[in-house]
Design a protein that fits this description.
By secondary structure, the protein is α/β, with parallel strands linked by helices. 32% of the residues lie in helices and 26% in strands. β1, α4 and β2 form a beta-alpha-beta unit. This is Methyltransferase type 11.
Length: 193
Amino acid sequence: MSFFDRIAPHYDRFHDLLRLGHPEAVTDLLSLAGGETLLDVGGGTGRFAASLLPRLAEAWVLDASPAMLARVPSGVRTCRGDAAALPFPDGSFRRVLLSYVLHHLEDPRAALREAARVVAPGGRVVVHDLDPTRRAGRLAQGLEGALLPVRALSPEEVGKVLGSCCLLPAGRRDGSWWVALGFRRPEEGARKG
């Protein structure tokens, strides 16, 4: 049983206690106009995706933990899988979110490339995670690292990977220990510049 399977029954309370969500910053960067499809990669219990359902055509949560997925509210579709090998065709989603998951992954760069692959032209990828360039971010990384491996990428590293996938910066929000970064895929035929 994985760490996340063990904590699934308590995850939402723990999440609330530590204020891990920063939903305003993430929602702002998702820039929902209404009717989009969302993939929440590593979305755990799916509570955030469910909160967006009134503004979405469809929401998916992909997570590696069956115990987390068992807690996803009705109305949100689920898929057990690996963030580094998403089981969806290219361009499947208008919005892809990786919130507080990237630093847990064995290969965070592969997960970013996969997010870029499955986002549709004109869509957005939002990454919300620890910021190891900030003192409080390094402290959070150290505390969490006492429990399980942590591989936090700097905002610049995230931007470099997604930029190499032809995604363009589309906003940034900073907290004391976290950063939320937005990227957009240009529409088909649109020129960069």
